[in-house]
Amino acid sequence: MTRFTDRAEAGRALAKRLAAWADRDVVVLALPRGGVPVAFEIAQALHAPLDLVLVRKIGAPDFEELAIGAIADGPESELVTDPALIRRLRVPAEYLTAAKASAQAELERRRAAYLQGRPRADITGKTVILVDDGLATGATMRAALQATRARNPARLIVAVPVGAADSLARCAALADTVECLLVPDDFGAVGQHYERFPQLRDDEVSTQLDQAARLHAARPAGPGGGQPH
After folding, report:
1. Where residue 163 falls among pLDDT bands split at 50, 70, 90?
2. N or C end of the chain: which has fewer CB within 10 A?
3. Where are the domains of the chain?
4. pLDDT tens-digit readout, 122-151
5. Exposure letters 81-115 (e unless 16+ CB within 10 A, then b)
6. What is the rounded distance in angstroms from the CA atom of residue 158 to the CA atom of residue 29?
């Protein structure tokens, strides 16, 4: 496989890689928006609850898709930047300050839109699988890892369908395990590795979260609490 049909297919493929974690004490956390359809499939396959870790990318001046940093929601907002890229692009300090404030405001908006008062999943002492639809610079995932680690999980696993080798290595330094299906030599953009890669709307994120919660609540309780060997 060199490309995925869509995020759902990528999620099903990743779920097979993660099959040893089925019916364990696991929580799947998606990075919205694009990580949600991938994580939904994983959560269903593993019989695990699905929740979000809210992260906002900070794009480069005049090139929003290129992440020079990211901020994640947590007990304290976690800001992660790429200093080498910031130096190379000569990004002014005042741009970063303004971008951080804007990103923080967007996190507040997303919390209200996606979670709608829904309590966060309790991840203390549990295995957490952090899911996105791909890693380009990896800044958003690194911010998510730092924010999630502060919530005291027992184990942190990064799971993505496709990623750039250097970004995967950076995430591996913060996670306990990294699972990735495709590591192209010429990475480009995440969307290049999907046949269909539409932008998701806020209501689509909320709908999938609601569906996952209903399905999980209707499932008989499994043994839980174990660890694969």
Report:
1. very high
2. C
3. 7-218
4. 999 999 999 999 999 898 899 899 889 988
5. bbeebbeebebeeebbeebbeebeeebeebbeebb
6. 10
Q: How far apart are CA 26 and CA 49, in angstroms?
A: 8
**CA–CA separation, 80 vs 70, rounded Å?**
5
Strands 55-60 and 127-131: unpaired
Which fold does the domain 7-218 belong to in CATH? Rossmann fold (3.40.50)
Of 48, 205, 39, whose CA–CA distance to 111 is shortest?
Answer: 205
Q: What is the pTM of this model?
A: 0.86
Question: Which of the two residues, 43 and 116, has the higher pLDDT score?
Answer: 43
The Cα-based distances of 205 to 35, 54, 181 in angstroms read 10, 12, 24
